[in-house]
Amino acid sequence: MARASAKSDRNKRTRNPRASGTVRGYPTTEYKQLELYYPPTTHSTIPEHLTGAKASSNRLGVPVPVGIVLFNDPDAPEEGVAYLSIGPAQQIRCANDLRSDVLWISNLNSIEAFPALSVIPNLRASNYLSFTLADIAHDLGIDITREGQIDHTDAMKLAGVLTRAMTIATRAYGWDAPELGPLRIQDLYLSLDIARALPTPPQMLTEHRSELAHALTQAYQDDSVPNWSAYHSDGKSESAQSAYVTLRFNRLNYARALLACPIPKGVHWSYAPNVVMSDALMEYCLAHASIVKASVEFSATDSDLAALIAFGKTGKRRSPMRLWLAQPELAWLSQYARISIHAVLVSDAGYTTLPRSAQLPVLFDTHPQACLSYSVGLIAHNHWQSLSACRWNASSKIDESNVWATWLRAYDRANMFALALKAHEAGFHVERYGAGSLKLSVAKTEQNYAALADFKHLHGLIYPDLAMMLREREKPIVLREAFKVGI
């Protein structure tokens, strides 16, 4: 009888858990709520009437749809309006109302400043594509306020441009598979995601690796911001009487030109820690793939020109001291300043070009009309920015540059200084230059606007649309409350 009773107990423990209220043979009184989520036991394929003729990763039919979300108050981002390239706008109570399958670019300067927003995986700051929404709007001739507010029709157009840019990026870098696209887009900035898809410079096989790493970092300068106030008591021109305009080249063509420049092979380097300055030494350094430790003096240089050169002045509060110069910068800076060389690092293998894997995606070369696409230009710019950015070194605890980054920035600075000098000679007030762009302060007169248009055309600059400057600036922005949208 005891055996029969034991057998009965074993049967109860192995019965269907749904019928007995057990899981894995154990009583589950406290877990009975889980039974509400058990799936049906029947097996079936997906009915044909529930599947479409063509499968897509989302309703918009693109790998990663992009929308823009404009918070009413960027300093307290809660309520706002969200826009897609198609469909009605949507009023939101907070960021939690945003669709989860869309990458949202906001009018916020930073996402990290708001802890509640930094944990939202599909929300980005305004400069996610290396340019703010205002920058892109100005390029395209779209009116936008300082707070990032924009007419709802223009907002949809802007969302369409950004969606095309991300579609191009996902396909150019092989991210367009539905299951891989969103997984490749994780960082706060697109250039950082692109960097993971690109190769890194070759390892420096030299006993002077540490000296070279420090030299490359101290020769690195991304932006150049003239410090006019150091020479002029009036400083910058009055903003109320002037307009800021950022002129830019065609981004794709500019990226191609930069990436085609010669780069040191960066494997074996010779180091001369103590050299005697002479004309012969300068000629040698200019003729080779070199990086020199030098002192730069502007006492004999015109004060305006010294300010325009902006050596080591990036507009940031904390920037490393510029103790070294790469050969491309040395070539033009030696024409305007007194330079004394104290140490030299030279690439034994000379110059080469970037490998094909570091060049722009093949997709951009196979379509001749790509240079006409604004969206392609955005991705091309982020591509070379990925190659020319400093990276955090955990061992040295500093943002460290490399051979590719330092040389690309040196070429960019040389090219943009030449353009800034022409603008200065033409009578324009230069605010900053670098990364293929030149920011000017222009007095608000028709004569100056006409001169600016002539300068832009003469030097092959494409953006922005200067017609916007001539339009009435008091165009009202449609009130968000007037939108008949649901949440």
Structure notes:
The model is unreliable at 12-26, 233-237 and 472-487 (pLDDT under 50). The protein has helices at 2-13, 17-20, 115-118, 133-139, 152-172, 181-184, 190-195, 209-218, 251-259, 279-287, 303-309, 327-333, 362-366, 374-387, 403-425, 446-458, 467-470; strands at residues 22-23, 26-27, 66-71, 80-83, 90-92, 103-106, 123-124, 242-248, 263-264, 269-272, 290-297, 324-326, 338-347, 351-352, 391-393, 398-400, 429-434, 437-443. It has three domains: 2-37, no CATH class; 66-188, no CATH class; 209-444, no CATH class. A five-stranded mixed sheet has the order 5-4-3-6-7, covered by helices on one side. The chain has a four-stranded antiparallel sheet with strand order 10-13-11-12. Helix 5 crosses helix 14 (374-387) and helix 9 (251-259) runs parallel beside helix 14. It is α+β, with helices and mostly antiparallel strands and 487 residues long. It contains 17 helices and 18 strands.
Short description:
The chain is of the alpha+beta class and 487 residues long. The protein has helices at residues 2-13, 17-20, 115-118, 133-139, 152-172, 181-184, 190-195, 209-218, 251-259, 279-287, 303-309, 327-333, 362-366, 374-387, 403-425, 446-458, 467-470, and strands at residues 22-23, 26-27, 66-71, 80-83, 90-92, 103-106, 123-124, 242-248, 263-264, 269-272, 290-297, 324-326, 338-347, 351-352, 391-393, 398-400, 429-434, 437-443. The protein folds into 3 domains: 2-37, no CATH class; 66-188, no CATH class; 209-444, no CATH class.
